What we know:
The protein is built from three helices and seven strands. The protein has about 180 residues and is an alpha+beta fold. The chain has two domains: about 50 residues, Rubrerythrin, domain 2; about 90 residues. The strands form three sheets. Strands 3-4-5 form a three-stranded antiparallel beta sheet. Strand 6 and strand 7 form a beta hairpin. Helix 2 packs antiparallel against helix 3.
Amino acid sequence: MVELISLSCNHCGAPIDVPKVSKFVTCEHCNSRLKIQSSGSATYTEVLEVIEEIKERNDEIAEDLEIIKTQNEIERLDRDWDRWREKQLSRDEDGNTHEPSTIGSIVGAAVIGVGGIMFAGFSDGGGALISLGAIAFAIIFAIYGINHASTFNKSKRRYKRERKQLVRRLRKAKR
Ligand SMILES: [Zn+2]
């Protein structure tokens, strides 16, 4: 024999007897679809629409949170990048800033080398030594500059890649 439990409809209050193993029931009085809920020792019915509404609302809240979280992450990423980038920039005499670049480093090294050699040509005595010094300094300048540009460009690519992923996640959450 099926064991019945006596419950009441959560919508109209009509009494309903439900097989103990049931999870859902339809109220014979008002036709509401009911889910049988258990909480501790209490068993009661809940209208399905209400449950679905709550679930939908929860999903919406989760989506909103995901959007806010992702927006915050994008802001933080931009802020960190700007702060780091600012430290890597060089400034020329006109106050314009430049990102580290391979070409810039080579041009800079050439200016130093050629300038040093020209200066050596005008000086009396020790010209060869000054030229060698200028060339050595130009080479060190170029190596440092090229390394710096390479590190900078790698970081820039990583920043752009991470940002793109976050923007994609944000777009997905907003859909
Ligand atoms: Zn009912």
